[in-house]
Amino acid sequence: MTNLTSRHPDTHQDWQVGVGRRKLTPEIPVWLAGYGYKREPEGKIHDLWVKVLAFGSPEGKRAVLVTMDQQGMSKTIYERLAGQASTRFGIGRADFMLTFSHTHSGPCLEDDLQDYYPADAAQKEQVLAYSRWMEARVLEAVGEALGSMQEARIDIGEGFCPFAVNRRENAEADVPGMREQGIPLKGVVDHSVPVMAVRNKAGGLCAVLFGYACHPTTLNGHQWCGDYPGFAQLDIEAAFPGATALFFNTGGGDQNPLPRRTVPLCAHYGKMLSDAVAGVLEREMTPVSAGLATAFRWVDLAYEKPATRETLLPVAGGPAGLQARWAARMLDKLAKGEEFAAAYPYPVQAWQLGSRLLLIGIGGEAVVDYALRLRAEYAQGTTWLSGYTNEMAAYIPSRRIWEEGGYEGAHIDEYGHPAWRWDGDVEDRVMSGIRQVVTQVRSRINV
Question: pLDDT confidence of 13, banded at 50, 70, 90?
Fold first, then answer.
């Protein structure tokens, strides 16, 4: 397949768009992230990347979207990168959106899931060293994107890809048999594939941004890999030479790729996703008019019940390594006189691109209920959710999932919070914050 040109190459929307990229594959033996045990690297299946899109509108407004093959992102690193984006490039917090795919074949990062792994002092030093090296590469890619901005046309569309499975409603061992027998799988899913095509002045395709709602947990080995999003990006770049493919996770906190655990399956899911993207690119797409507005706010997510010395002591002395490490660290904080907060500052962000596209970014592992609700609530135009944005706060359950319980409804202690789960109004608080930033951006652009 050759590079696509626009069917209307003379029609431009006055956008300025730049692209940047750098390899992020570790060059030191930092452990792989995502599962709570020791995984020393044993080579790579393919490289990990940071890829960046810089957007510029006719009035001079700029915004930077960073996509990465990383498992998570700590508030520590996010704050440093956001600060550097402002200092070095004049890109404010609202104009800087940092996304990560959540591949479980990427490296551990500073202060992300810090109690998760049984790491010794030497490994912690490796994590710090990689994190600082990675940050420098991210900023290089941001600078490249801003420095390469050129006149461009932006078009959007939507595809379909059905491999994601609601892991709360379907036993993993049962899924292959159910698929073979044609038995419908259970539970809420989001199989939509949002696609953005960026074409240059001559009509050539120079970037493809696409998303999907599913955990990149096909693999659990010891080799670096972007999981299915990594394979999908490679497929797209091979099919459309000269184009950079960028992936964002639209919020699959309760979704898994099933069946899984083999490289051929991982490549297969990547090909399913890239085929869905290619299908959109080969159809007529919707142009996005020029105009850019951005907004950001911190939303306080309340804890149901912060931990106390009395509730932590039995956990610290218990058999569960992860929880024991967490409880011991919390007890140390209390011993030093720290008081646990009643709520956590959670990042919520919105971009309005022209009158057509609303992009909402929220932190942590949002479940698919959020994307489905937002598309219904903001049905005028096109609404996309990026659910793993700016920091890996914790699972972000809907009210439905919070009431049902289960893994996604709790376990925020594993993310370093001084509590076991959010308060029951977590969805209301997230949605309230989203409405505020959406109101701000839509007041600046006629939608």
Answer: low
